[in-house]
Structure formats: structure tokens, C-alpha cells
Specification:
Blueprint (H helix, E strand, L loop, with lengths): L2 H9 L5 H21 L2 H26 L4 E6 L3 E6 L5 E6 L2 H7 L9 H10 L1 H9 L2 E7 L3 H15 L4 E7 L1 H9 L4 H13 L13 H12 L10 E2 L10 E2 L31
Parallel strand pairs: 4-5
Antiparallel strand pairs: 1-2, 1-4, 2-3, 6-7
Helix pairs in contact: 5-7, 8-9, 9-10
Length: about 280
């Protein structure tokens, strides 16, 4: 109510002038206080919303840490897949056969850097037994951007090359999903597709009991890719980011050129001289 209307209203009231003056002052103070007071709840609400936003951001960051953005599959005979977050930490571990389960049931690599996790897995006593019998390791990286895939493969190849021949490959999230649908890691699934392309009669059931080395031996045999001594050479899929390795008894090493992306991982002091080829 305006001062003019208040004056008109009080002019019609028969009261002492002093009472009228005090009443006007009282009402004026109350109406101004009311206008200021109505803002207070909004300020409190804004502060509460800001606090909620900070809490939500904190929880969002917490959950972001546990979301895998890429994966690494490792196949010898044990089939293992590691989910890697954006900070290069292992946040998920899956196994795809009994041998993989037996190995990982005694290891805890979660929250390790993926390079350290690879060292732990390959140094595990039961894994070393498989590596002694089977000199082939298939490593596949999926989900990461191309540059990140190259970086990861370089490190992983360096870590694993001390143990035997390494088949490196990459794939998308869709490729990994198709592999999982078939009950395989990406690396094993890619080897299966390579073998099936050479012999369409081969099914997933046909390779269930085969190690990754036996699968690649069959691929080399069917493709006629043999070493100088007549033994089948092992080779990688022709993926864009593959390590380009080509090993066998007397077979040619197709990974002798360097491209400046050699990994930083070292295994027992060994620093691999292999780079990426295509």
C-alpha cells in the first residue's frame, strides 16, 4: 500500500495526530521488513541447491572412476579381459574360460595401472606354466581412441614379448560386444573369424578346446603361411593398429621397423625392439 493511500485512510480515522503518526511509522517498518524477509527463503534455497550440485558432482566423479572406457583382452589358453577406466586403471575383470577363472581367482589387479596388472598376470606361476607350453599370446584393445589404442598396444607388447610371440589387434566397442555375445574375448573372437574366413565350415564349438596358439597355427596352415623350415608361422590379423608381428621357426619378423611409439613397460629388464607395423 502506498504512503498516499495510507494517508487517505488515516485521514478518515478520528484519532489523535500522534497516534496516527506512530501507526504510520509502525506499518511502514513492517511492510519494508516483509519485503526484505520474502527474499530470505530464496537465498537459503539457492545455497541448498548449490550444495546439492556439489554433492552430485562428487558422486558423479566417483562413479566416473568405475566406468570402463576401454578393455584389454589377454589370451594364452586362459582368456581374460580387463576393463580400463579413463585413468588407465583396471576397474573390471572378466574371465572367459576355466583356466582364466583359476588364474584370476588368486589375483587382485583391480585399481592397478593396466601395465602393472599385465606384469602381475604374466608373472603368475600358473600362467607361466601355460606360457612354457604355449608360446603365443593374443592381446586386443577395444574402445579407446586410435591414438590411445596405439599407446596401449605398444606398452602391452613390450610387457608380453618376453614370454613368446604376441598377436596384437584392436577393435571397437561393437566388436567387443559381438565377441562377448559369442562367449569369447575380442582377441580370441578375431582369431576365430580369421580362421572361419579360411574355412567357412569351422564353428565356434570347433575351437572350444584349442589354445590361442593352436588356433593361429591352423590359420597359418590354411593360409599357406609357413616358415623356411616348413613349420607354420604365426601372424597377426591385418588390423589397422596391429603390432604387425610375424613369427615362426624360420619365419620372417615383420615388426622390425620403429615408429616412435615404443611402450614404457619393461619386463625383467627386457625392452622390446618391436614397433608397430601394418
Amino acid at each position: 500500500m502506498s504512503d498516499r493511500r495510507l494517508k487517505e485512510a488515516f485521514d478518515n480515522v478520528h484519532a489523535d495526530d500522534e497516534i496516527k503518526r506512530r501507526t504510520r511509522e509502525f506499518l511502514a517498518r513492517k511492510t519494508r521488513s516483509y519485503g526484505r524477509g520474502t527474499m530470505f527463503p530464496y537465498r537459503r534455497l539457492a545455497a541448498a541447491m548449490a550444495c546439492l550440485l556439489l554433492v552430485a558432482m562428487g558422486w558423479g566423479g566417483y562413479f566416473l572412476y568405475f566406468i570402463p572406457v576401454s578393455s584389454i583382452s589377454v589370451d594364452v589358453n586362459p582368456s581374460i579381459e580387463l576393463g580400463i577406466n579413463r585413468f588407465d586403471r583396471v576397474v573390471k575383470v572378466d574371465t572367459y574360460n576355466d583356466d582364466g577363472y583359476n588364474i584370476m581367482s588368486s589375483l587382485d589387479v583391480r585399481f592397478m595401472d593396466y601395465r602393472d596388472a599385465m606384469d602381475v598376470i604374466l608373472n603368475q606361476e600358473s600362467e607361466e606354466a601355460y606360457l612354457a607350453e604355449d608360446s603365443c599370446i593374443a592381446i586386443a584393445v577395444s574402445g579407446a581412441a586410435e591414438g590411445k589404442q596405439r599407446e596401449m598396444l605398444a606398452c602391452l607388447h613390450t610387457c608380453a614379448s618376453s614370454y613368446g610371440n604376441v598377436h596384437c589387434s584392436t577393435g571397437s566397442h561393437g566388436d567387443a560386444a559381438a565377441a562377448h555375445e559369442a562367449g569369447m574375448t575380442l582377441g580370441r573372437y578375431q582369431a576365430f573369424l580369421e580362421l572361419q574366413a579360411l574355412d567357412s565350415s569351422i564353428t565356434a564349438e570347433d575351437i572350444e578346446g584349442l589354445t590361442i596358439s593352436q588356433i593361429w597355427d591352423k590359420i597359418a596352415e590354411l593360409s599357406g603361411d609357413t616358415g623356411q623350415d616348413g613349420n607354420a608361422a604365426q601372424y597377426t590379423p591385418g588390423g589397422q593398429n596391429g603390432c604387425g608381428m610375424h613369427h615362426g621357426n624360420g619365419g620372417q619378423d615383420g615388426a622390425s621397423t620403429q615408429n616412435g611409439t615404443q611402450g614404457t613397460c619393461q619386463q625383467n629388464g627386457h625392452h622390446s625392439g618391436h614397433g608397430h607395423g601394418h
